């Protein structure tokens, strides 16, 4: 079940929620007129109804979340149902959960004393890594698209890998791949989707070799995967399950420390 292209106003929402940096996300979180999904940078209809599928995908890719006593870090946790599920799971399974995001975003969550909440930006405001073994699970879901706007995604990756424990997994998920989007729009199904979403009778104009200088594309994702592998980690670029909102254009990067 992909997102219904009729459920949003494509021309307006595409521009409204594109190229959001760290400061932009703080402004969204502080706006009382926005829905929960909009506060996290999603147009109405892009996130509602998909939380259970996202959670199931996370548990499949990071099974340590299902077991007891895991050390878990959520980077850019947001204020939605997935963060609440992580908190509930931490309390039920005795996880040591750390959340890092804007103070304005964290204040919208029911954070118990057992959960460590860090108001700030990763990795700048994250305490230095220690010799306590690191995190068994690190999640950065729907975050990298904000990182690339005003920070170095390779430095972001390096800092996350540094904090991963032996056998631990890093999920950099829900990656809007501009290259994959262009491949989709070049298909008949993608053209039909575009017409409905953008409220137009015209087919999408897809440049054959359009560079993506400020967006996530194949080059960046493969570069991140290769960087992790060269640093001694196993890394995989994975298709999303078909029941997620934008599986036709998004992917997940899964990294494991041997």
- Unreliable segments of 5+ consecutive residues: none
Oligomeric state: single chain
- Strand numbers in spatial order across the main sheet: 3-2-1-4-5-7-6
Strand content: 15-25%
Number of strands: 7
- Average the pLDDT over all residues and give the rounded result: 90
Ends distance: 34 Å
Listing every helix as H and every strand as E from the N terminus to the C terminus, the arrangement reads HHHHEHEHEEHHEHHHEE
Spatial shape: globular
CA-atom Rg in angstroms: 18 Å
Largest sheet geometry: 7 strands, mixed
Structural class: alpha/beta
Discrete helix count: 11
* Overall helicity: 25-40%
Could you characterize what this model shows?
The protein is an alpha/beta fold. It has a domain at 5-65 and 135-179 and 208-256. Helix content is 37%, strand content 19%. It is built from eleven helices and seven strands. It has a seven-stranded mixed beta sheet with strand order 3-2-1-4-5-7-6, sandwiched between helices. Strand 2 (96-101), helix 6 (103-106) and strand 3 (116-119) form a beta-alpha-beta unit. It is globular and about 55 Å long. The two termini are 34 Å apart.
